[in-house]
């Protein structure tokens, strides 16, 4: 049951101090890194999404018509999705502790920092105020954990597209990344 709930959550996601300085990173691919002070951002990507809501169907529901008024969500067997996406990355820190405090992009109406928490047998997303990047450590933003949630997507995000995503850190300032849209690799 936990695997089913986590799988549904992953599918729904396909549908999370000092003066601020701004840096625009060069165009990157999934393996490229961007730096801002002691921070290095690597392996960034965003999930595909549709601007207009579409119906999510699991293999067992492939022939079942679903209307927007039928409910849905993780426990309803079907869900409306497509207006949200998420961005993931690894943030390495070779200096003092910092915090990712916000993110923004022109392709979404709203951007939030999220994590995924277990609530009994159900996995659910929860907004967080910040994502800690420990001194001489890293913050891993990945499916099923911390992520940058892109809400109210304004345009289709197709595999192969690239979006601009700005990350603001409490101490290091702001960096704008070129983030490729792709499907996550198998974990």
Automatic annotation (TrEMBL):
PROSITE patterns for this protein: PROKAR_LIPOPROTEIN
Keyword Ribosomal protein applies: no
Keywords: Signal
N-terminal signal peptide: 1-17
Record InterPro entries: LpqE-like, Lxx211020-like, PCuAC_sf
UniProt xrefs under PANTHER family: BLR7088 PROTEIN, COPPER CHAPERONE PCU(A)C
Protein name: Copper chaperone PCu(A)C
